[in-house]
């Protein structure tokens, strides 16, 4: 696969519309942090060490006999800044890796469900993504790759502290399990602050999905475990699953309450958002995210029909600055971006349905 | 000098704090210093603040100085540093990160105090290299949940949903019999 393949303006498979509870849970992500014994962590390693680590990992992947997954290796340094940003927006690499100049690379599976960052904060960051709520399945995907890599690489492990990581917040299992949730009901009912505080008590963290400083853009939240040591993998996943199921129930209740108390106001809000997306000529990413959230809620409640979730998921990814510029084929000033963003969304929503029929044959999930 | 806090161990850390222009100095041992360090703010209370932010907030806080660093070349620095990467425990507290895998062994005695504040425990209980992870606990939980849903569906006379949950339970039970492995 060449890099262009991974930059295409489509939602990756993990943003498909399969998966359980997919009206509220958008996607599941599992991350494992691993390091190679005998090398300093990226914080202080030498160029020589960095190079060796990258070569060892690349070598290991070339030996992997992985029937289902075809992997491609990309060196960050060789990528133009805009392309790095697109990979960040697709959640395939972290902003930290994108900013690394030396010997950082990423290995991505053809379906984009697996990406392995090399020389980020740790030597290895194995990341797996799935649509909907699939914690166990996604963990299994990551664990399988981890087991294969363990046979080929000297993974740093200690009996007391488990898998050794640069930051003590990742040591032990090295496991960060995250679930991306769309919570417009709880947001409208002003429940998110309480929820965030409550989750902190269970060792869980709530974040906005478009990164720091964009807290509740589009009512999308990422819930993940904070603790990695002192709990086994299955306990971490089980605890997160339990919490997520409770949030889903609360979100469903909130939506029903809103519908009962103020149906017309809710319908108005949803249809207005839909109209804005279909007709606006200038669109900031904030406005786009808010409108997309309302339309998504409208689809879930059956208020909006004839729009596929697939198109909506695509828009959620495409409204980000990197993608808008990728679409325009050039770097743009923020003001120009807003114009292109509006155009992009209009095109997606207005011909989304005809395109859908063409795709129907190969994609069963629409 | 003896540590001002525990009054047991030798004080090796000087904490200089400037409050309203008044400068005060405290002397602690490494163990107590690690406890008072801002890095060790109770994470279960300050959950939302990531470590790097805690550290960046930190410049307005007391200045930590190592006695041994002041005395320039001291043989004790060598004994405190990680032989593989040269990191000291104090450097770890400053950076919030360790230098290399070997650091965990080098600072094996001091680390649990830090880890106890930010983790659920100080001992790894999960997967080991070459070992299979047991998913049974999660599957049992899923079955439990599906059974509750089934009961609710029956109560509400949502029979289509009930059938769906019954199938789900069957599939999960099959998975449990297979030892937690997915069946195609
Ligand atoms: Zn003391
Ligand atoms: Zn070290």
Automatic annotation (TrEMBL), chain A:
Ranges for domain Phosphagen kinase C-terminal? 24-254
Chain ranges for the short sequence motif RDXXRA motif of the pArg binding pocket involved in allosteric regulation as given in the UniProt record: 337-342
> By what name is this protein known?
Protein-arginine kinase
Please name the NCBIfam families in this protein's record: PRK01059.1-4
Organism listed in the record = Ureibacillus thermosphaericus
Q: How is its activity regulated?
A: Appears to be allosterically activated by the binding of pArg-containing polypeptides to the pArg-binding pocket localized in the C-terminal domain of McsB.
Q: What's its top-level EC category?
A: transferase
Similarity comment: family membership? Belongs to the ATP:guanido phosphotransferase family.
For this chain's UniProt record, which GO biological process terms are given? phosphocreatine biosynthetic process
Q: Which Pfam families match?
A: ATP-gua_Ptrans
GO MF terms here are: ATP binding; creatine kinase activity; protein arginine kinase activity
- Return the EC number: 2.7.14.1
Which residues bind ATP per the record? 27-31, 91, 125, 176-180, 207-212
Name one cellular component (GO) term.
extracellular space
Write down the PROSITE patterns for this protein, in alphabetical order. Answer: PHOSPHAGEN_KINASE, PHOSPHAGEN_KINASE_C
Cited function: Catalyzes the specific phosphorylation of arginine residues in proteins.
Q: Extract the Gene3D superfamilies matched here.
A: Glutamine synthetase/guanido kinase, catalytic domain (3.30.590.10)
Q: Which reaction does it catalyse?
A: L-arginyl-[protein] + ATP = N(omega)-phospho-L-arginyl-[protein] + ADP + H(+)
Q: Which HAMAP family match?
A: Prot_Arg_kinase (MF_00602)
What's in the keyword line of the UniProt record?
A: Allosteric enzyme, ATP-binding, Kinase, Nucleotide-binding, Transferase
UniProtKB/TrEMBL annotation, chain B:
Superkingdom of this entry's organism?
A: Bacteria
This protein's UniProt keywords:
Kinase, Transferase
Q: Where are the transmembrane segments?
A: none
PROSITE patterns listed in its UniProt record = UVR
Q: Which GO terms describe its molecular function?
A: cadmium ion binding; cobalt ion binding; copper ion binding; kinase activity; zinc ion binding
Query: Which InterPro entries does the UniProt entry name for this protein?
Result: UVR_dom, UVR_dom_sf, YacH
Query: UVR domain location, by residue?
Result: 140-175
- Cite a single GO BP annotation: stress response to cadmium ion
Recorded protein name is: Protein arginine kinase activator
The organism encoding this protein is Ureibacillus thermosphaericus
């Amino acid at each position: 696969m060449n890099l262009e393949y991974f930059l295409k303006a489509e939602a990756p498979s993990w943003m498909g519309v399969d998966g359980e509870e997919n009206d509220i849970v958008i996607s599941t992500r599992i991350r494992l942090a691993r390091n190679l014994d005998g090398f300093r962590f990226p914080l202080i390693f030498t160029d020589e060490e960095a190079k060796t680590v990258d070569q060892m990992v690349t070598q290991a992947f070339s030996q992997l006999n992985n029937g289902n997954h075809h992997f491609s290796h990309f060196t960050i340094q060789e990528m133009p800044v805009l392309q790095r940003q697109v990979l960040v927006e697709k959640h395939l690499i972290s902003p930290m890796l994108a900013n690394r100049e030396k010997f950082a690379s990423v290995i991505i599976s053809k379906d984009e469900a697996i990406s392995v960052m090399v020389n980020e904060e740790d030597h290895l960051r194995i990341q797996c993504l799935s649509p909907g709520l699939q914690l166990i399945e996604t963990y299994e995907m990551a664990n399988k790759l981890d087991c294969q890599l363990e046979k080929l690489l000297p993974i740093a492990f200690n009996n007391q502290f488990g898998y050794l990581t640069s930051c003590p917040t990742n040591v032990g299992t090295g496991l960060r399990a995250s679930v991306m949730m769309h919570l417009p009901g709880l947001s409208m009912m002003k429940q998110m602050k309480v929820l965030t505080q409550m989750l902190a008590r269970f060792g869980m963290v709530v974040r906005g999905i478009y990164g720091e400083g964009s807290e509740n853009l589009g009512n999308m939240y990422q819930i993940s475990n904070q603790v990695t040591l002192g709990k086994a993998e299955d306990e971490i996943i089980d605890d997160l699953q339990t919490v997520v199921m409770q949030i889903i129930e609360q979100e469903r209740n909130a939506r029903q309450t809103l519908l009962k108390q103020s149906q017309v106001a809710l319908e108005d809000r949803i249809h207005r958002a839909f109209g804005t997306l279909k007709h606006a000529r200038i669109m900031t990413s904030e406005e786009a995210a808010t409108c997309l959230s309302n339309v998504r809620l409208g689809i879930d409640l059956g208020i909006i029909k004839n729009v596929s979730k697939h198109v909506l998921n695509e828009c959620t990814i495409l409204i980000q600055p990197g993608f808008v510029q990728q679409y325009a084929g050039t770097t743009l000033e923020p003001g120009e971006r807003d114009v292109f963003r509006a155009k992009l969304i209009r095109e997606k929503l207005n011909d989304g349905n005809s395109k859908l029929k063409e795709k129907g044959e190969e994609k069963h999930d629409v | 000098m003896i540590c001002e806090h525990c009054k047991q161990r030798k004080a090796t850390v000087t904490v200089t704090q400037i409050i309203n222009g008044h400068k005060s100095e405290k002397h602690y041992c490494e163990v107590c210093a690690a406890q008072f360090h801002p890095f060790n703010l109770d994470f279960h209370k300050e959950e939302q603040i990531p470590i790097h932010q805690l550290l960046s907030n930190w410049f307005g806080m007391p200045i930590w100085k190592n006695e041994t660093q002041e005395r320039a070349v001291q043989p004790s620095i060598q004994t405190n540093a990680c032989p593989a990467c040269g990191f000291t425990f104090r450097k770890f507290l400053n950076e919030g990160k360790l230098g290399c895998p070997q650091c965990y062994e080098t600072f094996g005695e001091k680390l649990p105090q830090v880890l106890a504040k930010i983790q659920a425990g100080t001992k790894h209980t999960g997967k080991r290299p070459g070992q299979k992870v047991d998913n049974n606990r999660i599957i049992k939980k899923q079955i439990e949940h599906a059974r509750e849903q089934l009961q609710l569906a029956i109560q509400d006379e949502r029979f289509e949903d009930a059938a769906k949950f019954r199938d789900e339970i069957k599939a999960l039970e099959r998975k449990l019999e297979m030892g937690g492995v997915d069946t195609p």
